[in-house]
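ok so i was messing around last nite and threw this chain in just to see what happens. nothing serious, just curious
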Amino acid sequence: MLKNMRKNGLILGAFAISATALIVATQFLTADRIATQERNELLRTLNELVPPDQHDNDLFSDCTMVQAIDVLGLREQPVYRSRMNNEPHALVLRTTAPDGYSGAIHLLVAVNMQAQIKGVRVLQHRETPGLGDKIEIQRDNWILSFNGERVRSENDARWRVRRDGGMFDQFTGATITPRAVVAAVQRTAWYAQNNMDALFAAPSNCSGEPLVSEEQPYEY
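result:
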């Protein structure tokens, strides 16, 4: 009896070690592929916000890390710079809304030199399917409502959902999600238009920054 128990324990232990080794090996072998896929997805999204005919630089490489946790939601966030003939054209800032219904919502916000929003895209979220996920361009065109808008002041009252007296629609049965996104885009656009020169002059230092950080967002 004791001998069988010992044998079974050794078998289970060997199985656990083998399974762990297989998982580690799989992660190691697929890490580069996953990183490449993330980079390609990010480049695709950047080129949606700033089409290739509007820049002649490498958006992924022309990137600087900034620390503006009270605005962008994380300790550090990348800012991608679009240039044409070496002249500044637009900024694409990664930002985080920490107060979504189901947690942090990671976004890209593009702002041109005239302080006009060129576009917004969601990178990652955990909002409720069928309700909060309407922030995704694949699900709904709501995210396009930011296109062409400007932030007139730090406390621009128009930058709220209609239920709060603003100009942006909320979703039926889901107000928290669009409210969080609107606030994050407003903060980010205002920051961008007030720091254009400094952001374009900052050194390129992102070097393979992942698509979405796992760092805990700042709580507003």
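not much to say yet. Residues 50-201 form one domain.
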